[in-house]
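Fresh eyes needed here. I'd like your take on this protein's tokenised backbone:
***
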Amino acid sequence: MNSISTSTADDSLVRLENLAGISQRLLELARARGASSAEVSCSEERGLNVNVRMGEVETVESNRDRGIGVTVYFGQRKGSASTADLREESLESTVEQACAIARYTEDDEAAGLADADRMATDTREFDQWHPWTLDADAFVDLALACETAGRDADARIENSDGASVGSAESLSVYANSHGFIGRERSTQHTLGCALIAGRGDGMQRDGWYTTALMANALQAPDAVGREAAERTVARLQPRSLPTGEYPVMYSAEMARSLIGHLLGAVSGSALYRKASFLLDSVGQPLFPDWFSIEEQPFLQRGWRSAAFDAEGVATRESPLVSQGVLQRYLLGSYSARKLGLQSTGNAGGVHNLQVSSNAGGFRELLASMGRGLLITELMGQGVNAVTGDYSRGAAGFWIEDGAVAYPVDGITVAGNLRQMFSAIEAVGSDIDPRSHVACGSILIGRMTVAGAE
């Protein structure tokens, strides 16, 4: 993209120091009120978003938000409170509220700060801060160019759900009474378009978007509009399918959802509540022996790169799955104590996952499937986290001889996640870069597909 500038008056480091000073003040207030330990999270966000539709501006929104959260511990009794008011009396009141809550709660043997010896000592940045200084008028021009390109791309595009451009900046500080203080800053910019093709009962909607930490990494507006148009008209005149068992390929943006189900099942909160189909699964083979997932928290310009987690624990490069075998769970300090284990540095989530590929790109994967269902959209939330039973509405394309034959919708795909994981035949190299889960398309050998025919 062109006409992109970087800030000449970037005050983010000053604002981070401000938040750090507030966090230190809150810790002092907690200590003065008798708390044995405390932790503070301070954040500040600001952004600009514009939306246009059918060539007209619909909304222009500028936002500035901040939040402060305080958690205090009296032994193993815990209390939390929050505020967005930075006045001294408000800070004092927030700490007092947290302390009052803690005094009236019962002991929880798993409560407390993460262990002091697990605190990160290296808190470097990972090149995630790239402000976009265009004004609202320039954002409107980009959104209009995107929508116009999409509407002009094909005569069958007769309507639009609009185009949008957004930019967000986030600053955060985490500090605790171990003496740890960590600062983070990041940006995210997005350009997207949604279009409508056809008329009446034959209308179809689809779209496309581009997102990046750095505005120069976004796709051009006209390219986004054309991609949205191509995807929309490709869905016209869909059919259903006869109910049966078929090979199923999840496009890269849909494949991430399968990895998301795995992450939910191996998260500490699900495990100690016994609400996971993967209880006691560490050391067990779940996937084919060529399959692996690596956590990579130190990637430059990574979506979720971080030297420390939400509790200050040092992150580390580590396999989640190696040669098909689950290596560990995803634990913060509370869930780790509940399970009799140690934190894995995943309080707050995972930090960039790389899913291994054993196949070529998208076209090669279609050719290897030959005949089956390509899923490009999923609907509903029909996943049982306790049993792993899986049933979701879907739309996509029927594949014959390794090529798209026709669009399909009104279908349901079903299986069991444990069986689906083991039945993965290929992961493509067509990684969708718009997520912290780097994963290509996933081909599953056989699933139940329920259709109307």
User: Anything to note?
Assistant: The chain has two domains: 12-233, 238-453.
